[in-house]
Amino acid sequence: MNGVNQDMLPDQLHQALAAIVGPDRLLDVDNDRFTYSYDGSFLPLVPAHRPDVVVFPRDVGEVVRIVRLCNDHRVPLVPRGAGSGRTGGSIPVNGGVVLSLERMNRILEIDRKNMMALVEPGVRTMDLGRAVEDVGLFYPPDPSSWTVSTMGGNVAENAGGARAVKYGVTKDYVLGLQVVLANGAVIDTGGKAVKNVTGYDLTHLFVGSEGTLGVITKILVRLISKPKAKKTLLLMFGSIDDASECVTDMLSSGIVPASAEIMDKTSIQAVARFRKVDIPVEAEAALLIDIDGPQILLDDQAGAVTEMARQHQAVQVSVAQTSAEADELWVLRRTMGPAVAAIAKNKIGEDISVPRAALPEMIRRLGEIGRKHGLTIAVFGHAGDGNLHPSILADLSEAGARERVDQAVAEVFRAALEVGGTLSGEHGIGITKKPFIEEALGKEGVRALRAVKHALDPNGILNPGKIFE
Ligand SMILES: Cc1cc2nc3c(=O)[nH]c(=O)nc-3n(C[C@H](O)[C@H](O)[C@H](O)COP(=O)(O)OP(=O)(O)OC[C@H]3O[C@@H](n4cnc5c(N)ncnc54)[C@H](O)[C@@H]3O)c2cc1C
């Protein structure tokens, strides 16, 4: 049980939690427990992964009392946002309490003068994005899951999105946090002072901590001014190398696209079929590019990008003339996940990140791994920052298919490490990548992680079984 030895009977736990949140904000019947036993990862359902109880605190005071109760009685406690995580982070592998932050969902302040927002963890990413855009400001991190994912989940996973190439990821915007530690103490890290080197950078220790170090109850983020205008281009190429080199040329010429998304041939064909659109399906690679900034610069930049694409033998260049046309092009990328899933019985989506220059090599290796195991691997992702989402396509009901997929996944991670990359660009480690963490960080690296975990959560109650054993 990862050091967690619950010393409270389920009935006692239920009563003690009901005394904190009341019966209306507590779930413990089988169907509800089942609902909170899985997330957006591709892990098989496991009956033992059901929580004993799910609770929905409404304020930090309730979170403190729940965390203290769990710590005093060694009950595993798993913070949870929307459950859209891709690596099993919010799955209660040891049962215990799922602490859902869904009801702590208020935008507490949009501070226009300082260009910052203070939110509770259950605020949906999209809701924050829209609220700040209404006042002319901009919160750039845009995970594709932003219609459902919560800010707490984004911080805990250090989520990124298509705009990361120009604007960075969640960690680049988090200025401060309120966190409830495993012993129930509340700390406030960082703050509105932009320059702040008082003590260790605890704020960024909690960013990407996957619910294992504390429960995030408030988030202060930096905002920027909303880009004035945007242009969208779809570029089709005869080779992955040409597409990657085009991105490199763009960046070295000083044009930093807001997004530069890459899709391989399998992905292009899948989305053409799924959306019934007429795009050159014989192309080997596509780039979906957004450039943004003052309107006066955009036409010139779009012209320069078109010219670079032509120099790299682009087979087709489309420049959206209206925002409706741009949206149509983006639908291709946004529906890539389901489009690829539709061409196979099962899709196992992964997330790796490699140096940008290693993209062609990595994509070649993915092809080799697929061929070796008799599997198709579709590849799409964020070319601008080398973050790829290989989707392994299989029929898991076939004999031996699960084993072949598991081997292929392991080889994908190893190949990413070999080309100088890492296990995860944005989805975290959770359960699915845990077996590979030592290969990525080394023994001493993992020992350092454990030391931090032990210092902050000596009883190991917070999200046990994640990141490392
Ligand atoms: C279709 C789809 C597309 C996706 N696209 C992207 C993408 O483009 N970029 C990207 O980065 N990710 C993407 N994801 C993954 C996922 O949406 C992100 O990891 C997101 O940040 C998870 O948010 P959540 O609220 O669902 O968190 P959950 O899945 O509920 O939790 C994720 C982790 O955060 C912890 N946690 C949640 N809230 C808190 C809190 N308040 N305090 C402490 N720990 C907490 C949990 O314990 C867990 O370990 C995608 C997922 C799906 C299903």
Describe the fold and architecture.
With 469 residues, this protein is α+β, with helices and mostly antiparallel strands. The protein has four domains: 10-103, Uridine Diphospho-n-acetylenolpyruvylglucosamine Reductase, domain 2; 107-225, Uridine Diphospho-n-acetylenolpyruvylglucosamine Reductase, domain 3 (2-Layer Sandwich); 229-338, Alpha-Beta Plaits; 344-432, 2-Layer Sandwich (Alpha-Beta Plaits). 36% of the residues lie in helices and 20% in strands. The longest helix is centred in the last third of the chain and has 20 residues, at 437-456. The model has no long low-confidence stretch (mean pLDDT 95). The structure holds flavin-adenine dinucleotide (FAD).
What does the secondary structure layout of this molecule look like, with pairings?
Blueprint: H1 10-21, E1 26-27, H2 30-35, E2 53-55, H3 60-72, E3 77-80, E4 97-100, E5 107-111, E6 116-119, H4 125-133, E7 137-138, H5 151-157, H6 164-167, E8 174-180, E9 186-190, H7 202-206, E10 215-222, E11 224-225, E12 229-237, H8 240-252, E13 259-264, H9 265-275, E14 285-293, H10 295-311, E15 316-319, H11 323-334, H12 336-341, E16 346-349, E17 352-353, H13 359-373, E18 376-382, E19 387-394, H14 401-418, H15 437-456
Parallel strand pairs: 2-4, 3-4
Antiparallel strand pairs: 1-2, 5-6, 6-10, 7-11, 8-9, 8-10, 12-14, 12-15, 13-14, 13-18, 16-19, 17-19, 18-19
Helix pairs in contact: 1-3, 8-10, 13-14
The site of flavin-adenine dinucleotide (FAD) has 36 residues, from strand 3, helix 5 and strand 10.
